[in-house]
Specification:
The chain is 60% helix and 0% strand. The protein is mainly alpha-helical. The chain has one domain. α1 packs across α2. It is globular.
Length: 254
């Protein structure tokens, strides 16, 4: 049996991340339940998804040719309508994934000339606190070539999933009192660092063995959270692997 190395006495002790919990009711299931106005927890789950994944839809609207102010108004109006129960009759977990549902619903919304004409700028009374100013800054950094709205939506959706998972992982590390460890080690999550373990271990006042164990645990927890995030947006656990493959293909597509 192989034993994991331990920290030497007097050196910093790395946190131990919690194990992945079971996934009882996914947020996608709750989205369907959100059609019932009495299901407050369902509306809360839907609002959480909207806040996490608004930018891919904003980028889609912008790539469709709308000016920033128009895109902000349309995106906010769309989410307000979703939170009010519109389009949820189409939210059938047996027929797809949340990613497909939300984009299809947005297309219906944009195709409705009345919705477009009635879209009003929402100030302090907006239901969702969407950071449109930062969203437009991000959009200006998007590739300028003729990428389709659908492709920019899918790529930004995939990146939003990764961002959400990294943020969840960082929050766990903060709760365990080790935010500085996460900030130093997060570059190893996606293989973005070639820093020598020996040097980094010395800088972090720990042993090289303990550092390797910490990186291994961080990567494992990252994978667990990533699968959990995907599971929350698909109808059937059997679809998790295909959704992961799809998002990976989107990120590597030229």
């Amino acid at each position: 049996m192989t034993h994991e190395p331990e920290n030497t006495a007097g050196r910093n002790t790395f946190y131990t991340l919690p194990g992945a919990s079971d996934f009882p009711t996914t947020r996608w299931t709750l989205v369907v339940a959100a059609a019932d106005p009495h299901r407050k927890e369902a509306r809360s789950a839907l609002a959480s998804l909207c806040e996490s994944y608004w930018y891919p839809l904003y980028a889609y609207v912008r790539r469709r040719g709308h000016f920033p102010d128009q895109a902000q108004d349309l995106t906010q109006e769309f989410f307000m309508r979703v939170l009010q129960g519109r389009y949820l009759d189409r939210a059938d977990p047996e027929k797809g994934r949340f990613r497909a549902f939300i984009l299809t619903s947005l297309k219906f919304f944009l195709a409705d000339q009345g919705d477009r004409e009635r879209a009003e700028k929402r100030g302090g009374g907006a239901i969702l606190p969407l950071e449109f100013s930062s969203g437009e800054e991000r959009y200006q950094r998007e590739p300028s070539h003729d990428e389709t709205p659908e492709r920019i939506f899918e790529r930004r959706w995939a990146l939003a999933v990764l961002d959400r998972v990294v943020e969840k992982l960082r929050n766990e590390c903060v709760q365990h009192g080790s935010p500085e460890h996460f900030d130093r080690l997060k570059v190893f999550l996606l293989g973005q660092s070639d820093a020598p373990y020996t040097v980094l271990a010395r800088e972090m006042n720990t042993s090289e063995g303990a550092l390797k164990v910490a990186i291994h645990r961080l990567r494992k927890r990252y994978r667990d959270l990533f699968r959990q995030e995907i599971a929350d947006t698909v109808a059937d656990p059997a679809e998790v692997e295909s959704e992961i493959r799809h998002l990976a293909a989107v990120l590597t597509r030229k």
